[in-house]
Amino acid sequence: MAQKKPKFYVVWQGRKPGVYDSWDEAKVQTDGFAKPLFKSFDTKAAALKAFKDKPHLHIGQEKKTASQKIPGLIGPPIQDSLVVDAAWNTATGDMEYQGIYLATKQKLFLKGPYPDGTNNIGEFLAIVHALALLHQKGSNIPVYSDSVTAIGWVKKKKANTKLEETSRNAELFDLLDRAENWLKSHVYANPVLKWETTVWGENPADFGRK
């Protein structure tokens, strides 16, 4: 059996930035850290060189360049789909979310505002609300969201929020528990897809308050 080729990890933003010889070491520096920046390299020389550079020179450039040069590779959004988005008021901390049917722009649901929320929580609840609604209707159409974080939470069936529960947002945390339980107890065939804002423009479910 061939021996697995070693990887070397650069942590630009983490508890202790540096170059690490294993993922276990790098993970200690990045897990739970707000907005970590890290990447693996095939050789230590490449990792050491990259560590001296700005992280944006190494993270996300391939995907960004492809979509900018050949946006047609992504293709148009599927019209027979449900698109969701959330809005968070920075002044009040209130959050709300909604979902629309893309082909007709018909609003299918609008929830909130909920006090002391976050945008990521709203995006997560919006996706689960859409999945539950479509499951009830026996529909397998896709659900679009522009939140990579919320899509990741849905895949893991867990809202990995650092928001603290208070008396004001108790209802919101109850909704999170119910959403997580729904994901764990239901099987759905609906693809949960990323709304490609850079190619398609603003999310149609956006609240328009930017």
Topology:
Layout: E1 8-13, E2 18-20, H1 23-30, E3 37-41, H2 44-51, H3 61-69, E4 82-88, E5 95-101, E6 106-114, H4 119-137, E7 143-145, H5 148-156, H6 170-185, E8 192-194, H7 197-200
Parallel strand pairs: 4-7, 7-8
Antiparallel strand pairs: 1-2, 1-3, 4-5, 5-6
Helix pairs in contact: 4-5, 4-6
- Total of DSSP H or I helical runs spanning 4+ residues: 7
Strand count, sense and barrel status of the largest sheet are: 5 strands, mixed
* Distance separating the two termini: 55 Å
CATH level 1 name of the largest domain: Alpha Beta
How much is the radius of gyration in Å?
A: 20 Å
The CATH topology assignment of the largest domain is Nucleotidyltransferase, domain 5
Stretches with pLDDT under 50, minimum 5 residues: 61-72
**Number of structural units classed as domains:** 2
Mean pLDDT: 87
Q: Could you state the CATH homologous superfamily of the largest domain?
A: Ribonuclease H-like superfamily/Ribonuclease H
What's the overall geometry? Answer: globular
Based on the coordinates given, report the CATH architecture of the largest domain.
2-Layer Sandwich
The strand line-up of the biggest sheet is 6-5-4-7-8
Structural class: alpha/beta
Number of strands: 8
Function: Endonuclease that specifically degrades the RNA of RNA-DNA hybrids.
Catalytic activity: Endonucleolytic cleavage to 5'-phosphomonoester
Cofactor: Mn(2+); Mg(2+)
Protein name: Ribonuclease H
Keyphrases for this structure?
alpha/beta, Ribonuclease HI, Chain A, Nucleotidyltransferase, domain 5, 2 domains, 5-stranded mixed β-sheet, globular
